[in-house]
Design goal:
Blueprint: E1 3-6, H1 15-26, E2 46-47, H2 49-55, E3 61-64, E4 68-75, E5 85-90, E6 93-99, E7 110-114, E8 119-123, E9 126-132, H3 134-137, E10 138-142, E11 150-152, E12 165-173, E13 191-197, E14 202-207, E15 222-232, E16 235-240, E17 246-250, E18 261-262, H4 265-273, E19 283-289, E20 302-306, E21 312-317, E22 327-332, E23 338-341, E24 344-350, E25 355-360, E26 367-369, H5 371-376, E27 385-393, E28 401-406, E29 411-416, E30 430-441, E31 443-447, E32 454-458, E33 472-474, E34 491-496, E35 502-506, E36 509-515, E37 524-529, E38 533-534, E39 541-550, E40 557-562, E41 576-577, E42 593-594, E43 598-599, E44 606-615, E45 624-634
Parallel strand pairs: 1-3, 2-4, 6-9, 11-12, 14-16, 18-19, 21-24, 26-27, 29-31
Antiparallel strand pairs: 3-8, 4-5, 4-7, 5-6, 7-10, 8-9, 12-13, 12-15, 13-14, 15-16, 15-17, 19-20, 19-22, 20-21, 22-25, 23-24, 27-30, 28-29, 30-31, 30-32, 33-45, 34-37, 35-36, 36-45, 37-44, 38-44, 39-42, 39-43, 39-45, 40-41, 40-44
């Protein structure tokens, strides 16, 4: 709710200050015939910026009456870094002014602002004075009344310094930002760059894509900078008025942390295996960033790093970082938490100021492996670059989500975040050599950095090199507990979410299971698909299995047959439901139910049979379905 405020005439304690300022404001001024300076002032109507700021209590404040503000312009629109705005300052503080139209004012102009009809409000925690008409409400008193910047340190830049002119000394832009433009002048997008001091303190420098200097390159050296303090939410920012006010041509200060103990990633992993959930004091990590923040197939707070020994680990920062692929970095890791997130080990809660690019590193060569070896020996590859050769990729409409890869040895999901730059690109099915980061989300998964990580080899069978069979006798005893069911032509495919079918064990019996219990996904749709079966080579094919459940929900499971499934996304194939006895919620929990003999003699050609499970933990539909003792045989009578 807004409120109307008449400026009260109780400001006489400022009279002596105003009387001192009058000669400075009016002496030698350039008179505008349309807006002449006042020769006399209603002293009781004058307010300071401090008084304006104190009026604001969290709700918009409408100002009416004869109130006026005397201040000096410390940032104008002339170089395009702000638009329809001014930033002004007096002896008590500064304030951001939103104009109803562009202004003709310049830095250093002493102005009188008529406040009647204006509004005090904030935008993302930045207090501003809105609805000021520069032609009728701002009167230029005199030019070139420049305000000198206050010299501060980065930690001293707080909300109390909003809209004030400051100077920082012995600062530099982060190594990874040097040489980049201040903003995207081509697409006219604002950009944030990071300024640091020699102690590792940092602050954002925000530049509009419309600024005249948006395309200029960020200097590499150390030195001083003059800028205006702004704020966005809880983040303090600086606006550059003119790149001429940057004097960054000195020698860069060395990145902090060089005197701390260097830990290898192997040492960090060993520490976690010994039960420690935090890193020792006075420690640092150094390596090369192998993830690519520019193509965004990774959360903005995450990064992957490999050290000189070829080991890798995931980094989780408190805020979005600016570490680019190939940056040689030093990370101060003293006392930081060390935990697993859904199976992936990561160093957590890293302040962005703890990471320092110290050069351009050489990306390590990816290690060639198979999907089976990756699954069976994941700890050897976790958070490192791997190369999977001759891997079959199914065609689909986009990269977003999980894509089931198969190289003939096993299946692994390749995951793409929906905000990745290539998420909406169409996937061409076929055989590829794929370079990716070996990550983990309940199960091993691969993360490509960009489409350049996929080398197309040509057309190929996305189902792998599995020959069709004429019999199946699978009791899952060869699988270990929690293994994916993906051997000998079997496939587990997570169509929606990250859950597939896995092996579970109870009382020495191993079986395949699908469940949404404790899933982090809104919905899980998981398929368990048999090897291809050549029905033309059989006389009287029969299919049998057993199933059981635990707290199964209705319509959780269906059994299908397909004659055109090629190993890709099941939704791209034609499926016909088979009539079989399946365990239902009405059956006793854990009891094994015989499917009965399913006659397949009415089908021909190469077929696959699949169980489709659908569940949702958030909706409470998170029961488990189990399959065991699967048999397909030729019932010759």
């Amino acid at each position: 709710m807004t409120k109307s405020i008449q400026i009260m005439k109780h400001i006489r304690r400022f009279t002596h200050l105003i009387l001192v300022l009058i000669p400075l404001m009016f002496g030698g001024c350039e008179k505008d015939p349309d807006h002449p300076p006042l020769k006399t002032i209603n002293e009781d109507a004058v307010v300071t910026i401090e008084q304006l700021r104190n009026m604001y209590n969290g709700s918009p404040v409408e100002i009416s009456g004869d109130a006026m503000l005397f201040a000096t312009v410390i940032m104008d629109e002339n170089l395009g870094n702000i638009y329809r705005s001014l930033i002004v300052q007096d002896e008590t503080g500064g304030i951001y002014i939103r104009l109803t139209s562009p202004s003709w004012l310049n830095v250093g102009d002493s102005v009188r602002i008529v406040l009647d009809g204006s509004q005090l409000d904030e935008y993302n925690n930045m207090l501003q004075l809105n609805d000021i008409d520069p032609d009728s409400q701002i009167i230029k008193q005199s030019p070139e009344r420049y305000i000198q910047p206050q010299t501060l340190t980065i930690p001293e830049i707080t909300s109390s310094k909003q809209a004030q002119l400051i100077k920082l000394e012995e600062v530099q832009f982060t190594f990874e930002d040097t040489g980049l433009p201040f903003a995207d002048a081509v697409n006219q997008r604002a950009m944030s760059r990071t300024l640091i001091d020699c102690e590792g303190n940092s602050i954002i420098v925000r530049t509009s894509g419309f600024a005249d200097f948006a395309g200029e390159k960020i200097p590499e050296g150390n030195g001083s900078l003059i800028a205006v303090v702004t704020q966005f939410q809880n983040i303090m920012q600086l606006f550059i008025r003119d790149p001429a006010e940057l004097e960054l041509d000195g020698e860069r200060c060395p990145p902090p942390g060089g005197d701390l103990e260097l830990m290898s990633i192997a040492d960090i992993r060993q520490r976690f295996s010994e039960g420690f959930n935090s890193l020792p004091p006075n420690s640092r990590l150094e390596g090369v960033i192998i993830s690519d923040r520019e193509n965004e197939n990774i959360p903005g707070q995450n990064a992957y790093i490999m050290d000189d020994n070829g080991d890798g680990i995931a980094l989780r920062f408190q805020n979005w970082h600016n570490l680019g692929i190939g940056n040689q970095v030093r990370v101060i890791i003293s006392n930081l938490p060390l935990n697993e997130f859904n199976g992936l080990l990561q160093i957590e809660q890293i302040p962005t100021g703890n990471a320092h690019a110290i050069g351009h590193g050489d990306l390590p060569e990816p290690r060639v492996t198979t999907l089976r070896n990756l699954r069976d020996n994941f700890s050897d590859y976790e958070s490192t670059l791997v190369l999977i050769e001759d891997v079959a990729v199914p065609g689909r409409s986009s990269f977003a989500g999980n894509i089931e890869l198969n190289d003939g040895t096993a299946s692994v999901n390749m995951y793409t975040y929906q905000w990745a730059s290539f998420a909406d690109e169409q996937v061409q099915g076929g055989l590829y050599n794929i370079t990716a980061i070996a990550s983990y989300y309940y199960n091993p998964q691969l993360l490509i950095r960009s489409l350049e990580d996929m080398e197309y080899l040509g057309e190929g069978d996305p189902g792998g090199d599995v020959d069709p069979v004429t019999s199946i006798d699978e009791d899952f005893q060869s699988y270990g507990n929690f293994d994916d069911i993906d051997r000998n032509g079997w496939q587990t495919i997570a169509e929606v979410g990250n859950r597939g079918w896995i092996c579970r064990e109870f009382g020495g019996n191993h079986y395949a299971q699908a469940t949404a219990f404790n899933s982090q996904d809104p919905v899980n749709i998981a398929w368990l698909v048999t090897p291809p079966v050549d029905l033309d080579a059989m006389n009287n094919p029969v299919f049998e299995f057993q199933s059981a459940h635990e707290y199964l929900h209705d319509d959780a499971i269906k059994l299908y047959i397909s004659g055109d499934f090629n190993g890709g996304n099941p939704s791209g194939a034609t499926w016909e439901e088979l009539d079989a006895r399946l365990a239902t919620p009405q059956d006793p929990r854990h009891d094994w139910i015989d499917s009965g003999s399913i006659d397949l003699s009415g089908y021909s050609g190469i077929i696959h049979i699949a169980w489709r499970y659908e569940g949702s933990h958030p909706q409470g539909n998170n029961g488990s379905f189990r399959v065991d003792n699967v048999k397909l045989f030729d019932d010759i009578k």
